[in-house]
Amino acid sequence: MLSKxxxxxxxxxxxxxxxxxxxxxxxxxxxxxxxAAAAAVKEPEGPQMVTEVPGPRSKQLMSExxxxxxxxxxxFFVDYEKSQGNYIxxxxxxxxxxxxxxxxxxxxxxxxxxLLEAVKGSAMATSLVNRPALGVFPGANWNNSLRxxxxxxxxxGLNNIITMMCGTCSNENAMKLMFMKYAEHLRGGKxxxxxxxxxxxxxxxxxxxxxxxxxxxGSFHGRSIGCLSVTHSKAIHLVDIPNMxxxxxxFPRYKYPLDQFVRENAVxxxxxxxxxxxxxxxxxxxxxxxxxxIVEPVQAEGGDHHGSAAWFMGLQAICKKHNIRxxxxxxxxxxxxxxxxxxxEHFNLPEAPDLVTFSKKMLSGGIYHKEDLRxxxxxxxxxxxxxxPSKLIILDAVIKTIKRDNLLAxxxxxxxxxxxxMNELQAKYPNIFANFRSLGTFGAFDCSTPxxxxxxxxxxxxxxxxxxxxxxxxxxxxxxxxxxxxxxxxLMGKLQTVGGKIDS
Length: 504
Ligand code: PSZ
Known about the structure:
The chain has two domains: 136-401, 3-Layer(aba) Sandwich (Aspartate Aminotransferase, domain 2); 409-503, Aspartate Aminotransferase, domain 1 (Alpha-Beta Complex).
């Protein structure tokens, strides 16, 4: 059992290793502006648990829902009026520190005052009750909204955008753009012929050419039938659904800590890059060339596997050499949690990736892309709504708050403290905490077995900390951008308590 003394000394140690903590509060400190903004968010002091989770009210709602819908994944029902800031409050009144944030999709926490303010007034009401089919009848302010909101945070070098509803449909359509571009190349840049159009209607070549998208073992890009052909994280996602059978290559698997395995990890990058080259040659030989590569900056659902800057630079160089488009799926990594708006900005690529997809913290989906991928004909990338203007009203306030409160700098600062805290825990309890990797507050560690992982997250839930998992043995941190030192102290203290108990 973990004694009070050990906990106390941990808290003391944490103050030593998290130098920001004490200077957080006092007036005049360098964190004052962030604190002033945070003060407006009425958060609980800390977690407060009154029942087990799911509690009786959640269980009752789960059984009522079950009469209409089989949704076996529900963890608990939420009181979204009472949830505040970094605390999610369930229908039984349990207040939990939320380090999972709706599968990494809440940018500023719950009921952020700036967002509540943004939805007051007639613009939101008009937007909500008059939903446009944006591809044919956009509203008068749509261009301004795109320019001032989504384009204001576009990845450097990408000046075209297509809005969508979710991450999956963004990836579906981004893959179509890559196919359309490669088909244009196969036709020598010419317009479709009548034979192309006629054969397309018959489902035959040349109108339906043989082409593929390369993806990676461990990837997750969505659950539509197309996206499942590039998704390889869990059998339960794939079983029973016909698949395109496209090529799949290895994504690097590093040894940690990175600074102790520099040589081995560089060899791993080279091995995986060589495999990509091989797949490209093999597909050409087999008459089903690769039109594009889809890749996550971190394979999130698959277990938070990071790729190095050298790996991504190598991948881009291979793509350029073979006239293959590079699509970086930033659905989970985008929106600021890595300390930059887009995680691939950390890789210092010589030029922008060809396409970047987003959703989650960006509140609705879309594709940023290069000029040369613009569809040459109407109605090729299209659906009824093609996006959701009301979400941009909220996203506008999110982006303004990120800037006003310097949240990317905060994420970087808190992320550095998180690394220090996790290094301490790893040194103390190596069976419970290993292989910590992160950028900003987007972090993860592995437990030695799935059972230990589940004990740890179960124990954390009882202590009022809501965590997410991925892969087989991985726990991931996905806090909102407003997660600061006081939240980190609670997270680290509880990990110490629960991890220490499991270890003893
Ligand atoms: O189980 C699921 O369906 C989950 S759990 C987490 C996700 C999906 N993440 C969504 C996701 C993603 O992480 C990446 C890297 N790409 C695409 C998607 C799909 O986005 P949505 O769910 O918005 O369609």
